[in-house]
Write a structure and sequence with these properties.
- Helix content is 47%, strand content 2%.
- It is mainly alpha-helical.
């Protein structure tokens, strides 16, 4: 299984996959997703876990087979790809997500202003369509607040830190 690099989110998830399925895969670290995808297309590796943004164009062209999305629901931009729950790994959810961060101590007024600007951008149908075309779903409005991000971030740390620690994964 190709991974996007040692210590990456893909590495952590691959270790989680091996553990949960009791399947030793032999992880092959790459210097990013693009070289791993090249080797997957060339048949040099058997599989990889990747972001929809990188993988969907290859799946749509028939270059690779997408077995499942690791979300709780199917992607709007790829409704033919089943979820992990439907594919036989219930609850095996993982997401690559993005957020905007500011330095500690940034005044609340600045945070609110940034959040409002992002919210306005995400309300634009052209922006949300662009995200959807890349396989990215925009979170509901209630999940686009600094408080919601903090709660989500904390939950992600609680979920993934034990796996990182147990596997002694270090970023390179």
């Amino acid at each position: 299984m190709g991974i996007q690099g040692v210590g990456t989110a893909g590495h952590v998830f691959a270790v989680f996959f091996e553990k949960e399925t009791a399947t030793p895969l032999g992880l092959v670290p790459y210097r990013g997703a693009a070289p791993a995808m090249q080797d997957l297309l060339a048949g040099q590796i058997d599989c990889m876990i990747d972001t929809p943004t990188n993988s969907l164009p290859q799946a749509r062209s028939g270059g690779i087979k997408a077995y499942a999305v690791t979300a709780e629901t199917r992607l709007a931009s790829a409704p033919h790809i089943p979820t992990v729950d439907e594919a036989g790994l219930p609850g095996f959810h993982f997401s690559f997500w993005q957020a905007l961060w500011a330095p500690k101590g940034t005044p609340a007024a600045i945070i609110d202003r940034l959040n409002a600007a992002v919210g306005a951008s995400l309300a634009d149908p052209a922006i949300t369509q662009r995200f959807a075309d890349q396989g990215q779903d925009v979170p509901p409005l209630a999940q686009r607040t600094p408080r919601a991000l903090a709660a989500y971030h904390e939950a992600e740390i609680k979920k993934w830190w034990p796996i990182v620690k147990d596997a002694n994964i270090k970023a390179e």
